């Protein structure tokens, strides 16, 4: 029996009905009543597959057991996300504390979404394994926010000539580190392990940096000879950057919460020209996949 073809991102009424196992008439009535994600263009109903998938997951949740979380986006710090939350007028409050803390807040219904970038050394992927561990037994969907460049943030001109993660272990190099539950810290630990080094081989500043911009500030102010962070923060302060890895930064939320106004407004804004232009100006971002489904649990 031939394999069933994968539906395109934009489906016709017939394609969407087949995908949902509904009659065309039933889906038409739902679309006309604005009860499913759909758009009527040129007299034809069109259905975005990603939005339809999220809608389906939302319907599967038990409404009597829903706990409405506050409009808080918890987890990792990202300058593009910070800017988009402000500019979109989505009404979300940001609570930076690291990727794993964001997932913990999501699991406890203390936040409606978590911003995460946690590597999975076993699969080579990002975020799904950590989400499964931190939000067990819950239905959640991760959407791609952006792909980012992570690497060494160094003084302008790179006077120490650092080029690899192993160079951070050189004598006399003080590193601006992150808190233990931050995605950047977990990624650094992974890269050090691949290089055959333990975390205690590095000399860190006494207090960890709470956000990406604090890492860059420590290097710019001369308090640290190096930091591990994203290209965008290095460029903002005129610092040298050595790329080491490309990572996926996701936003994770329960299916129903993706349809509430705050997250809807944020993701709608992220589909616009201003968002893409800002990402290009900051540098180190790839936003072609923004808004696509990274994983569903």
Automatic annotation (TrEMBL):
This is Helix-turn-helix transcriptional regulator. Pfam families: HTH_17 (PF12728), PBP_like (PF12727). One of its GO terms (molecular function) is DNA binding. It comes from the Bacteria. The lineage of its organism: Bacteria, Pseudomonadati, Pseudomonadota, Alphaproteobacteria, Acetobacterales. Residues 11-59 form the Helix-turn-helix domain. It comes from Falsiroseomonas algicola. Signal peptide: none annotated. Residues 86-270 form the PBP domain.
């Amino acid at each position: 029996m031939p394999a069933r073809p994968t539906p395109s991102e934009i489906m016709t009424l017939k394609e969407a009905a087949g995908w949902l196992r509904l009659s065309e008439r039933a889906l038409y009535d739902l679309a006309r009543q604005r009860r499913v994600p759909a758009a009527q263009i040129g007299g034809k109903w069109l259905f975005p597959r990603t939005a339809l998938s999220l809608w389906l997951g939302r319907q599967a949740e038990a409404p009597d057991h829903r706990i409405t979380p506050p409009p808080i986006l918890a987890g990792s710090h990202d300058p593009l996300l910070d800017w988009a939350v402000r500019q979109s007028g989505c009404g979300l409050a940001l609570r930076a504390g690291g990727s794993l803390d964001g997932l913990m807040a999501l699991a406890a219904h203390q936040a409606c979404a978590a911003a995460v970038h946690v590597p999975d050394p076993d699969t080579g992927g990002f975020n799904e394994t950590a989400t499964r561990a931190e939000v067990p037994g819950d239905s959640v969907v991760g959407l791609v926010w952006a792909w980012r460049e992570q690497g060494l943030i160094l003084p302008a001109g790179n006077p120490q000539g650092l080029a690899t993660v192993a160079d951070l272990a050189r004598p006399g190099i003080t590193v601006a580190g992150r808190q233990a539950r931050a995605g950047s810290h977990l990624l650094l630990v992974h890269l050090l392990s691949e290089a055959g080094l333990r975390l205690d081989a590095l000399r860190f500043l006494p207090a960890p940096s709470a956000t990406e911009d604090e890492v860059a500030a420590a290097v710019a102010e001369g308090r640290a000879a190096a930091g591990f962070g994203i290209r965008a923060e290095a460029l903002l302060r005129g610092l040298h950057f050595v790329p080491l890895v490309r990572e996926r930064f996701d936003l994770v939320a329960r299916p129903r919460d993706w349809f509430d106004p705050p997250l809807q407004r944020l993701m709608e804004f992220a589909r616009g020209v201003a968002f893409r232009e800002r990402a290009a100006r900051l540098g180190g971002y790839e936003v072609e996949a923004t808004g696509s489904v990274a994983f569903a649990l």
